[in-house]
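for the writeup, i need someone to sanity check this before i put it in the appendix. the sequnce is what the collaborator sent (i think, or maybe the updated version? ugh). structure was predicted straight from it, no edits. if anything looks off just tell me and ill rerun, i have time this weekend
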Amino acid sequence: MSVLSSVAANAIVWPLFAVMLIVSCTIAYFKSSGSSFISANGTQKGVPLALNFIATSFGCGMLVAYPQMANVAGLHGLLVYSLTSALPMMLFAYFGPLIRKRCPEGFLLTEWVYQRFGTVAGVYLSICTVLNLFLYMVSEVSSVNLAYEALTGKSGLAVVIVQCVVTTIYTTLGGFHISFITDTIQTGIVLVLLVAGTIAVATNLKIDHQAVLDSGLLEAKPLGWKLLYILTVAIFTNDFFMSGFWLRTFAARSDKDLFIGCAIATFVLLCVLTLVGMTGMLAVWAGYVPIASSESVPFFDLLAHQSAGIVGLVLAITIVISTCALDTLQSALVSTIASSVFRNKLSLLYVRSIVLIVMVPVVIVGLIAQDILNIYLIVDLLSSSVIPVMMFGLHRKSHSYLTAWEVVGGGLGGILSVFIFGSIYYHSAHEGGRLLLLLNGLYLDDWGVFGALVAAPVGSIISAFLIFVIRSILYHFWPLSLLAPISPEQNNTKGTISEDYHSDETKDSTLIFPPI
């Protein structure tokens, strides 16, 4: 096993951070502007947009989560995970034009929520989005720490702290524009990593054919079928929370460019995620890690057995990928806090200060966290409670029955439903509370996680319906404006989405999908 020495690791990591900081700050100085600091609406064509969608999905967490899935759930689970991660890109090709027409000056989903449901629902989604970004930054910090430890055998504390400082400095100077540039670089570097890793593994790895048969990783498993539902609901709803995706959706020059970008990103993501995940099985077949090992990092454990030169290259590329992913999350956090939480009424200086403060608990929690998939599942559970009811607001007639009461109450009802389900299923309120944080993990041999991902969306829809009935009855007897349906005029919009799409102005637009 070629673990890098302290001298070699330091010679790679610190000059790399210095170069990235200097280059990024230089680009930020010459390229950034006030108008592009938190958004870049209508500026990107299809292929550059695809590269940015791909890069937004990449990060060091990808190198940890997908191999771990293959290590536990085999090829069946890996293919399900890859498909359910790649296909949601097409959601933005469908819903993106609808939201863009509704909020042409916006650049996040929360802007539409503010217009459609009002301030309370907008703040509610903004808080959920900030929490989502926080947990994704935690997963990225945790992943780079695990990667550094696997490749060097030493603590990654210093690397994590310096990485956060570097990304904070250049995103503070360059804003969202610098994130677009680093995303393009990140995509190219991922491809380099895949080529180098593939060549190294293909030329040096020795696999026992009998070990492949004995592992059972190529067989379909019950867990794989569970994951087909769990990950579909989890990832499809969670992508709506991803500010990075919405920033790029609004950055598309046209609906056609958006469709091209999403289609290319879907195909590339499917291929790359599957290839990366395969290392989880290869590491088992080569005898480097045991099956279903929760403590191993199969991707890095596999490459750590290659030559020192390959290990050094993998370390350098991992640092770059993780840094680019972290700056994407930071720029999305800045945009969300500035636009959605404070409605552009707070100076960017204070917004940057808030992000800097947020990075402190990100580092602390990231160094403690070990299970990356569990972090993802927590935000997935939140999104599956919030998003289903909210997206009903896109329907042309939803103004008559769907308000902030149903959206906020439905989301909270979905979370409460998970607790109720867990308490009944495990015969313990304590275990019901643990299920809210999925502390037992994804791979426990029961139906707890599956039931939670059923209870969350179903419970939110039922809760929203009950709130609608109660609100309608109360409004019938006490017609208070607080209980009344919100009309398009009250929200200061120009009519329903259906009307927008059938107006003369949009008849010649390059819509790929029909309106709802």
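DSSP finds 19 helices and no strands in the chain. The radius of gyration is 23 Å.
thx in advance!!
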